[in-house]
Amino acid sequence: DYWREYLGQYYGSSLRDCKRMSVHLPTSYFLFPTSYFLLPFLLASHSSFPMDKKIKSALISVYYKDGLEPVIRSLHGLGVTLYATGGTQDFIEGLGLPVVAVESVTDYPSILGGRVKTLHPKVFGGILRRDHVTTDLEEIDRFQIPSYDLVIVDLYPFHETVASGASDADIIEKIDIGGISLVGAAGKNFPDVLFI
Asked: What are residue 107's phi and psi, to 5 degrees?
């Protein structure tokens, strides 16, 4: 409620409108002042996505899998092509559902101990392409980049790792790079991409 009140005041939306947001904003987004750049993206991606647009593909990369199964099953039931990374891919395959490995799209495995998984033009090009810009669509086609209509992502548990008394090395590995980048890309292209 505090963050909905804050968002309502800061961005000129009423508290009532903020409460109507279908996705709850986790407090992990608000740990540091530098995280505030996410707020307009979070709001914009929920308020301006065209409701008549059909979601054909979803890129999913999450640390926490709680509550993910019904979402995955619903998307599959609607004929949405699912793309996923590492542990999320394993989770979806464990449900017996088809999923496209991001590694098969990028032609690169997860490298540097998992530090680099999604940072690739074939991921970010598919998120940042503008559906109303002809040259964007021509380049997507030329470079065989899939388009992503929906991006589902969360961030590594940095706060929890710090609070647990973990070593500096473990804490550093929970600084999210790919997740933050996916959030920023989806937020920037909110007219064409829904972000959760």
From this structure: 65, 25
Query: Tokens standing for 61?
Result: 């990369």
Alpha-carbon separation of residue 7 from 11, 17, 36, 95, 139 (angstroms):
6, 10, 11, 37, 37
Q: What's the pTM value of the predicted model, to 2 decimals?
A: 0.71
Would you say the C-alpha torsion 104, 131, 74, 27 has a positive or negative sign? positive
């972000």: which residue's tokens? 195
**Adjacent-strand bridge partners of 162:** none
Q: Which residues of the chain have pLDDT under 70?
A: 1-52
171: nearest Cα among 163, 179, 180, 162? 162
Instruction: Tell me the angle at which helices 2-10 and 38-47 cross, rounded to the nearest 10 degrees.
Output: 90
Q: What share of the chain is helix, strand, coil (3-state, %, to 5)?
A: 50, 10, 40
pLDDT value of position 172? 83
pLDDT tens digit sequence for 12-52: 433 334 333 334 434 333 333 334 344 444 444 455 555 66
